[in-house]
Amino acid sequence: MLLNLLTWAIIFYLVYVFGKAGYAKITNDPMMVGAFNMIPPVPGFDNDSFRKFTGGIELLSCVFLVVPPLAAFGGLLLTCTMIGALLTHWLVFKGGYEKPAVLLVLSLIVTVLTW
Q1: What letters, b where the CB count within 10 A reaches 16 and e where it falls short, cover 72-99?
Q2: DSSP summary character for residue 66
Q3: Confidence at residue 31, expressed as pLDDT on a 0 to 100 scale
Q4: What values do phi and psi take at 93, rounded to 5?
Q5: 66, 67, 70, 76: CA torsion to nearest 10
Q6: Where would you tag: which of 32, 57, 82, 94 has the fewest CB atoms within 10 A of its CB?
Q7: DSSP percent split of the chain into helix, strand, coil, nearest 5
Q8: What is the Cα 23 distance to its own chain's centre?
Q9: Backbone angles phi, psi at 44, to 5 degrees
């Protein structure tokens, strides 16, 4: 019971964080546009389409997280997304990787607990 409650608390936190971030990415928030413009080109994407793709993945993951049979897949998508974010913060931005690291761990915990 307590583990289930903790899992849902983490899920709702992730939905809040990634829902907000994904929405900012697809609605052209100036801070997100600036951040993605600093990232070197990703094969197959320009910076705008990569930003919107990433935001779409985050929003889709949020939907998956709140549907119990799909929660593990949503957590796995966010885990992969956060590995990319962590590497980007470390290699491109040269800092600020603490929050992506925490979100990576939380996403991984949800993936394992809902598998």
Answers
A1: bbbbbbbbebbeebbebbeeeeeeebee
A2: T
A3: 96
A4: -85, -15
A5: 0
A6: 94
A7: 80, 0, 20
A8: 11
A9: 90, -5
